[in-house]
Amino acid sequence: MSQALPAIGTRLPQCAIAPFTGAELSAYAEISGDTNPLHLDMALAGKIGLAAPPVHGMLLLATFESALQEWRPDLRIERLSGRFTQPVLEEEAITLSGRVVRVREGEAPHILVRLMANGAAREPAVVGEAVLVPRGPD
After folding, report:
1. Which of 27, 49, 70, 101 has CA atoms 20 to 30 A from the CA of 77?
2. Rounded average pLDDT over 25-51
3. pTM of this structure
4. Is 26 contained in some domain?
């Protein structure tokens, strides 16, 4: 039996994400094919004014998936998008949060969740949205 859809205004529990290490960024670059040296080279990051290489945007966006699934395993992600507002740097922790902003019941039920990833300075690094729908029978 599936759970009722969450109400508008329901907040996801905040989730702390441990900092990404240089080794993790290298592994992600190799697996994803995104080998842009900006994400891997401390000297290059410094040349453009960053204290460390920035974490890949898609890697940051992917952190929402596990947080959403932990919050509501009865729902699946139908769509996930984000806008990157400031870089998250290697070895910088982030905090994920979210809030339900729309609920549609009926024949094609779904919920829309606004998502935020905040860096160490508590400023938004990623502002995103996820559309979640009930999981079908396995």
Report:
1. 27
2. 95
3. 0.87
4. yes
Distance from C-alpha of 133 to C-alpha of 138, rounded to nearest angstrom: 14
Tokens 């952190």 sit on residue? 63
Q: How confident is the model at residue 85 (pLDDT cuts 50, 70, 90)?
A: very high
H or E stretch including 81? strand 75-84
Assess contact for 118 and 95: CB atoms under 8 A.
yes
Q: Where are the alpha helices (DSSP H) in the chain?
A: 22-32, 42-47, 57-71
Of the chain, the end-to-end C-alpha distance in Å amounts to 13
In this predicted structure, what is the pLDDT of residue 1? Answer: 45
pLDDT digits (tens, 9 = 90+) for 106-119: 888 999 999 999 98
Q: Which two tokens stand for residue 55?
A: 């974490």
* CATH code where residue 119 lies: 3.10.129.10
Copy the structure tokens of residue 7: 């109400």
Could you give the count of Cα atoms lying within 13 Å of 28 in the half-sphere of its Cβ?
20
Per-chain mean pLDDT for the chain: 93
Domains of the chain: total: 1
Residue 44's domain comprises 15-134
